[in-house]
Amino acid sequence: MSIPSLASFNTPGSTVAVNSTTPAVGTCITLGSSPRPLRPAPIVLANHPIDTIDEVPEAPEAEFWAAHEHLLERVRKEFLRSQNPVTSAVKEIVRIRSFGDPLLAKPAPLIPGKLYLGDASHAMDIGTLRELGINAVLNCASGAVLTDAEYYDENFAYHEFAAEDKGDYEMASHIAEAHGFVTRCMEEGRSVLVHCAAGINRSAFIAIYLYMALTGKPLVDAVRHCFALRPIILCNESFIDQLVEVAEKEGRI
Questions:
Q1: Domain span(s) for CATH 3.90.190.10 in the chain
Q2: 0.90 cut: is pTM over it?
Q3: Which segments of 114-196 does DSSP mark as H helices, in order?
Q4: Superfamily in which the 99-249 domain is placed by CATH
Q5: Around Cβ 2, how many Cβ atoms within 10 Å?
Q6: Over the range 133-170, which residues count as b (16 or more CB within 10 Å of their CB) and which as e?
Q7: Are 93 and 204 in contact (CB under 8 A)?
Q8: pLDDT tens-digit profile of 18-58?
Q9: Whether the Cβ atoms of residue 16 and residue 72 lie closer than 8 Å to each other
């Protein structure tokens, strides 16, 4: 039985070789008629010992890699992300969370009088919103938090979208509409609460981006500031990766 040769790609300072165990550790792929578990060695550096799966399909090399090209690209991206110092810095900042912190009782004042981060309970507590001078609400999880414009009185501005807290969800797709709404609110002199259900991932992603955009702070400083005020954010590592990608594209590193 023929074995496909290793595919390789270059990264700064090293060459990465990827064998046919491209999918994530612990998963299976179907080779022929039945699934076969993969061994836990999907990525290796050149000149290091390389593990392989026990069996590979009887197909020409080019055909094999064409069929698994998306898996190779996925591993390449994951490897590059794992080597990114900004990604590592952000993950280290949010590594130890404090779910019993008294700071969580009220919306976090990321920019006092302008931008707050919270959860569904904060969004539904109109008394506290008025006490803090908050008169605009951005609901990042309208599929889970069933408030709407009619929940608030005519003095509030309201916008919503139904983001999902999943590893493969493109949270960055909501940046433009969130930024547009908050920009209008700032122009009207409003104070905005950004929230989702738990105030951990979806709203934190948007709030951190907005904090960067409004203050000009780089990503690591923005995450450090927001985490200090709401020390439970960003446990969805895919959202961290997306924040880093957006910050790099916009020069906010």
A1: 99-249
A2: no
A3: 120-124, 126-132, 175-187
A4: Protein tyrosine phosphatase superfamily (3.90.190.10)
A5: 11
A6: ebbbbbbbbeebbebeeeebeeebbbbbbebebeeebe
A7: no
A8: 444 444 444 444 444 444 444 444 444 444 444 444 454 55
A9: no
Strand partners, 72: none
Check if 196 is active-site.
yes
pLDDT at 233 over 80: yes
Phi, psi (rounded to 5 degrees) for 230? -140, 85
Structure-token match 């539904």, residue found = 124
Q: Which of 62, 68, 66, 5 is nearest to 31 (CA)?
A: 68
Count Cβ atoms below 10 Å from residue 179 Cβ, excluding itself: 15
Distance between CA atoms of residues 225 and 59, nearest Å: 53
Do 179 and 212 form a contact (C-beta atoms < 8 A)? no
Token couple for 125:
């507590």
Structure tokens at 52: 């392989």
pLDDT for 80:
66
Beta-carbon contacts of residue 211 (< 8 Å; ≥ 6 apart)? 110, 111, 115, 217, 222, 225, 226
Total count of residues recorded for the chain = 253
Q: Which of 140, 185, 196, 226 is catalytic?
A: 196
